[in-house]
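As a warm-up, study this chain.
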Amino acid sequence: MKLESIPRIGAQQPVGYVTEGTVEAHNLVATDEEFVAAAEALENATEIGALCQQTFNLGVLIRRQATPNVALLSFSERVQRFDEDVQRVTHEAVQALTAEADRIANPDQGVLNEAVNRQLGFLSEAIDRAFDENDKKSALHRVEQAVRKAATEANEQASRSLRDLLSVSTGRGPLAELRETMVREVSAPFAGLSDSLKEVEKLLAAEIARRDEHQRGTQQGIEFEEAVAEELGKLCQITDDILIHTGNEPAAGGNKVGDYVIEIHTNRGAQVKMVFECKKRSTPLSVAKMRDELSTAAKNRDTAVAVMVLSGDGSATHHMPLLKLAEHRYVVVYDDLTRDAMALRLAFQQARSDALATLVTTGDGEGIDLDALVAKLAEARSLLSHLKQIQSGVRAGAKALSAIQDNAVTMQTKLLGCMDDCDQLVKLT
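Now compare it with the structure written out below.
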């Protein structure tokens, strides 16, 4: 199988790098020499990241095929154990009934045979008393033999009939019908359970698809833009800048790219602007596409600096919360779930620094210590990168802990079921 034919799992496509015998793409790391050689033969970081992602996807698919579903396996084990219990109890009942029937109808030692023999003895004694043994000995003997033969045949026929009546395994009689009824009534609910589980899976898949569609809806995008605007408004209050919503105003060519413009005014009356474009997406944009949209936004709103705000890591093509695409062009991740504004605040300060730098070059930015500001922003970017790595490690650890807790719950459920079965086995009836 070629790696290109493996389906992608997840929406994020990492960017890969080859350094000192190691291939790294986001949190995927490989040191295999052949794999490193294959990565070095690729043309750019995007292709390396794709190779790492595809290799990871292949491993996930193989593990998924090799690992059974724990919940279904547990359910299957319980059904099998229940079926074995039914078979065991039925077998014990059959043995008990067979033993009782044999005790009653055994031709040699059965209770019925003993009773018949006793009656034959009583009959022989009665015949002996009723007739003179010296005169009619031969006749009495013939009568006795005929009666004994008839009684023996009747005993054998009665024994066979009673065995058939009490037998569970021959398929005749009320006990056999009772056994078949028990097995049918107990097994019938489980026969349709598989179809019910399939219907539940279909309903769950439909619900997940509906939620995903809602997540990508227009209303979600509007809510995300409003959340970004709220954070930008707080930052503008600190810097005395002006925030303007321009997303509904088309530019000269009818293009509406550029959701928010921030105007920076100096004490000497100079003005410079920066634009923020919000993107609520479930799939990432390419670097070239983001660069083009930022250039369009800057042109539409006549700004020196442009920043694209993404709603989460899933819509970013990189694993950094803040990325510089080109001069005065930035991409920042403002997670719509956690609403952590740390990276957005740093992007605001970086964009404002670039905008003020344009004033310094034109002589309108006197009094601004640009070198100190640039140094501080560089330090902040480095700290943000380390923070992102730490948070990623914490999330990975939390995911592993959650898996351990789920396994513990599953084991506890199995243990309780086993203990319940033990209670049933020792229960006195």
